[in-house]
Amino acid sequence: MTSRSAGSRAARGQARGAADTADSHYSWVVLSNTTLGVLIATINASIMLIALPDIFRGIGIDPLQPGNTSLLLWLITGYLVVTAVLVVTFGRMGDMYGRVRMYNAGFAVFTVFSVLLSVTWMHGTAGALWLILMRVGQGVGGAMLMANSNAIITDAFPPDRRGLALGLNQVAGIAGSFMGLVLGGLLAPVEWRMVFLVSVPIGVFGTFWSYRKLHDTGIRRPARLDWWGNLTFAVGLVAVLAGITYGIQPYRGHTMGWTNPWVLSALIGGVVMLVIFGIVETRVAEPMFRMSLFRIRAFTAGNLASLLSGMGRGGLMFVLIIWLQGIWLPQRGYGFTETPLWAGIYMLPLTVGFLIAGPISGWLSDRFGARPFATGGMLVAAGSFVLLALLPVDFHYGTFAAILLLNGIGMGLFASPNRAGIMNSLPADQRGVGGGMSTTFQNSALVLSIGVFFSLIVLGLAGTLPHALSSGLVAQGVPAGDADRLSALPPVSVLFASLLGYNPVQTLLGPNVLDQLPASHAAYLTGRSFFPALISGPFANGLDAAFMFAIAACLVAAVASWLRGGKYVHAERPTTVGTTDYSCPALRGPEAAHHGAVTPDRAAVPVGTHGLASGVAHSTPPTDRASPPGLREDRPHPTRDSPLAAYALIVTAHGYRPATYSMTTGGDGQPAAAETAPRTNGQIAGVVRAASPDRPLPGAVIRAVDASGKVVARTITDRDGRFRLTGLPRRPYSVTRAPSPTAPPDGNGSAGATLHLTLDGMRS
């Protein structure tokens, strides 16, 4: 009884899945759910930046004490490091076991650890370590979401709509980084646990929704996990990112720790381990990191551009927070405890720029390709960094907001087409691992940018801040010994104080010294004008260096983006079909009436040159001019641009003879045959069955092949033999079952091992 009930539930689930995926709105369900997942993951990557002061006060820790600096940094970067390390592994597992399955698990894991973060009962160092460990667990869930969301979208949308879909998803992810700043500033002062609890209802809803509505429509590639690859990659990347995290901390009287033997060992050892990882991946049968994907120019150039743009964008966020919180906002009357929230609010023009440009550029890239928009976006971003470098430290907000809006537009112009270009370049069975590789570059860029930008600003401060701080304090009556002690503190302590919204002088000088000063002097030192005026000059030196780096990164990213080539969507090699048994029954359903006289060549021929209707197919394949390996730039496509279109629908399965159908249309938008046929919306749904014995056939492959031999769409049947083929032109078609020549069975199956295709209809 129990097994019968379980079988009944499984059957109902499979029927629901087939109905859901066949629905014309399914792709938008996919987009909305995956966008929610990416949004919540990226919001949590930045929400703690603004909330850290309240969180540390809640657990009773002073983050500015030297021993607590590493706790502070790991709470900021731990989530980023984990997601950067694990997205490739989870993308690979999605290719193997199902992308939706991994994505659903990611939502659940993320939600559980969000709850655990909010129920922290410990205080002091133990409480901070608990938060770090739970953030690592939350990062595992975030990595599962980010690794598979792009692949799920790519599976659900045809190539002519992927740019818009991936653009919306990408823009939501990037905007989430800035939305987290505002949410953290709003929630943390009320109750610091709400910073984590806000994710719980969204996570519960997303988990339930994704479990009910998302279904695997992509191609699975069963394989074994590459344990050596996973191990060497994780150790190497963690070592490099940890070395960067500790490199920006002071070490034995030095302003930073780049000479620390541990930091040097971590950086050098991590690079060596990543080199070993690259060697391992070329030797194993089923590698985690597909090095062969880097032969695809669009994939390599897109990821290089993504890495460089991410470094510029990530560093910009930290620079602007310090600039606003430490200098500009206090000079306008905001208290230091208020500056974190208002810094997030004043940075909203950046998010608005993303939201405006991202979807538009994604939609346009579907028509014209990624190169012009991604390259132009990087040039616009570089120009905005030039304007920021020319802006005085005490700026007018209207000018500042306009430059931020311009930067957001430039980054939005780049992000959507670039991600669509990367995903379109990937083979169907490599989208999970390829998407994970791309996310690794993007997440690693943020950690790298923290090291680069902090180092540049600290170097700018180190030259002039100590003298300015010492002389300014002595002038206000602070004893020379205390002034020298404070001026000898590493500049990174001053930066952290500004970043966290602390009153730097009051925090670093301490009540014992301030109580000995005249009240007017103490009030001036701890007021809103002394520290901002003191730091603005030294900070400007570091700011110029940081913006110069961002300009260079964006310009190199623009060059890399231009080198990706023209519009490109990965196409499989032409499929060759051997002698075919066409003796199985004719089509059932609305398309069954369309019968033509198609006589395929009995010899093994490339489909599209001889396998289609005479006089309908374009029998001369296009010539490929000198294109690099793995890259073929788009040319006018027979099924899209020619007045007369035809292609073959090929159904294959192991142990069965292939079945072939011809789909044709005339140049006036009517079917080539006299009968009518419904206009497609770019997809066909149906079921493949074995003719003898009659049963659904899982694992059958359905390919749509155009007249040049190019596979324009491909899918695989589920356990019930059902399939949904997307990416077809939106035209009325006549579907014709090719007639059966008399041919003996070949070695792939017996005479009765034939295939039977039933179409649910080309959905209009």
> Radius of gyration over alpha carbons?
30 Å
Number of strands: 11
Helix count? 23
Runs with pLDDT <50, length 5+? 572-644, 666-679, 739-752
Helical/strand content category: alpha+beta
- Silhouette: elongated
How much helix, percentage-wise, in residues?
A: 55-70%
What are the SSEs and their pairings?
Blueprint: H1 2-22, H2 26-59, H3 69-97, H4 99-118, H5 124-156, H6 159-187, H7 194-197, H8 199-213, H9 227-247, H10 261-281, H11 297-331, H12 339-346, H13 348-368, H14 371-390, H15 397-424, H16 431-475, H17 480-487, H18 491-500, H19 504-509, H20 511-514, H21 519-525, H22 530-562, E1 576-577, E2 605-606, H23 638-641, E3 645-652, E4 659-665, E5 683-690, E6 695-696, E7 701-706, E8 711-716, E9 722-726, E10 734-737, E11 755-762
Antiparallel strand pairs: 1-2, 3-4, 3-7, 4-10, 5-6, 5-9, 5-11, 7-8
Helix pairs in contact: 2-3, 2-5, 2-6, 2-8, 3-4, 3-5, 3-9, 3-16, 4-5, 4-8, 5-16, 6-12, 6-13, 6-15, 9-10, 9-16, 11-12, 11-15, 11-16, 11-18, 11-22, 13-14, 13-15, 14-15, 14-22, 16-17, 16-22
Verbal overview:
By secondary structure, the chain is α+β, with helices and mostly antiparallel strands. Helices cover 60% and strands 8% of the residues. It contains 23 helices and eleven strands. The chain has helices spanning 2-22, 26-59, 69-97, 99-118, 124-156, 159-187, 194-197, 199-213, 227-247, 261-281, 297-331, 339-346, 348-368, 371-390, 397-424, 431-475, 480-487, 491-500, 504-509, 511-514, 519-525, 530-562, 638-641; strands at 576-577, 605-606, 645-652, 659-665, 683-690, 695-696, 701-706, 711-716, 722-726, 734-737, 755-762. A five-stranded antiparallel sheet has the order 8-7-3-4-10. Strands 5, 6, 9 and 11 form a four-stranded antiparallel sheet that branches. A two-stranded antiparallel ribbon has the order 1-2. A hairpin with a 4-residue loop joins strand 7 and strand 8. Helix 3 runs antiparallel to helix 9 (227-247) and helix 16 packs antiparallel against helix 22. The longest helix is centred in the middle third of the chain and has 45 residues, at 431-475. It starts with a helix and ends with a strand. The model is unreliable at 572-644, 666-679 and 739-752 (pLDDT under 50).
